[in-house]
Amino acid sequence: MKLLLVLGILSALSVVTQCKSIQSELDRLYPPLEGNPSSHEVKTFLTRVDHFRPQDTRVTRFTYTQKADHFRQGGPIFYYVNDAGIFTTIWLDTGLMHDIAMEEGALLVTSDHRYFRNNTPTASASFEDLAHLTAEQTMADIATLISILRSENPYSSRVVIWGSGYGATIAVMTRQKYPHLIDGVWSSSGIFAPGVYVSDTYAYLEDVIKDIGGDECADRVRGAFDEMENMIYGGRGEELGEIMNHCTPVNVTSDLSVASFVKNQIDFFTQYLNIYHYHGLLQICNEIGDANTPPLNALADWIIRTFLGIECFNFGYYDRVDLARNTEWNQPGTISGLRQYYYLKCTQFGNWEVTSPFSDLFPHFVRDTFHYYMCNDVLGENYDAALLYDSVETLRLIYGDLNPRVSNVVYTNGEMDSWFPRGLQESYPGGEIINIPFYAKSADLRSISEFDGANLRSAKERIQQLVSQWSQY
Ligand SMILES: *[C@@H]1O[C@H](CO)[C@@H](O)[C@H](O)[C@H]1NC(C)=O
């Protein structure tokens, strides 16, 4: 086994050298983002533990980061809503909003979602202590911080907020609730109309691979997953684990272990497209296209070359549960935010991705029950999965589903993003939809570049125009 691993790493290395020129081409189109933390001021603010029970006066101190390099007195405030579990300050240093901030003299600010990283309002992450981890509490934190920023900068009455994915969803909902504090919102690949279990994202990814990657590429992907399925049904978990460089054999007698394993293989596609978009898909198709290599081996080679940072992958269901079940802060599952991420999705947002029995590329192993058990195993016996249906229904009811009626919003959607079917599709008075073909998630966050396709370029110019408009008195 050891020898196999060493050989695997060696052969991976030689292929990496071969592929350097392709990688450098992708890096030229999408250069790695560079931050400048030395210009950041990390500050704190007080916020309520529970915003909605007037008799509960407990407060907690949260951190936020601001960058005032381009700020001119009276300039607007641009606030980036971080996604749950993603902690980035990169958009204070680079990207489209940073560039607009330079022109408008804006103060750039971001903070982490409550219960993530330093923003922990309770003693532990027990199921009971996580009770105040809701979208509504998070939005109230944002409103609190914006009020404080505005009182510290009394001439800066204009506020524009933006986010990506779930962060964009929260940004839009926050203006819906607090229109007196926020003048405009840019939702980049925001997700709307939540469901408990959703099968349209993987189905859409499948269409993207077929329509843009082409029939040959789709055949290779289908071939790889067919073989994976054969090995699972054939009881060949050890062989499968070795091919895919998994740390342990795949436990093919456990539906949950199989689901966890297969889900992560599908998600590699999404991850890659979200970084490299159209060129990324061509790249995948190119790398798995060699007809002399069986499709599953070709897929494994590509995954290992591209994603393997450590010795082997571990997508074990029970390992993940163990990680996310620990309720103490300063444990890997809470530092990474994995436990909190599960709580948010298992109790309020749903949107659990499942495969479809009608799928033509991906085997139907990622089912409702996988997520159902995961939520139960992670959150414990006091959690009631049946309530998630009501929570999701309530979200749709309160925030307007596909008809949010919130004004001064620009929604951008990448047409290669697997969440595209869950984005808003139709403009309405005050809400402008811009769909961007040949890009996946949030390509528009980056600065305008000479390599931008025409649609991406014009989307960015329109965002610039609207944000500047919202930034004026
Ligand atoms: C595989 O899964 C089955 C069913 O959950 C379980 O009983 C068995 O102990 C697992 N095997 C290993 C090696 O973990």
From TrEMBL:
GO terms, biological process = proteolysis
Q: List, alphabetically, the Pfam families matched.
A: Peptidase_S28
UniProt KW keywords: Glycoprotein, Hydrolase, Protease, Signal
Could you list the residue ranges forming a coiled coil in this record? none
Q: Which InterPro entries match?
A: AB_hydrolase_fold, Peptidase_S28, Ser_carbopepase_S28_SKS
| Family assignment from sequence similarity | Belongs to the peptidase S28 family.
Q: Write the signal peptide boundaries.
A: 1-19
Quote the protein name from its UniProt record. Dipeptidyl peptidase 2
Q: Name one GO molecular function term.
A: dipeptidyl-peptidase activity
Q: Which SUPFAM superfamilies match?
A: alpha/beta-Hydrolases (SSF53474)
Question: What is the scientific name of the source organism?
Answer: Pseudolycoriella hygida
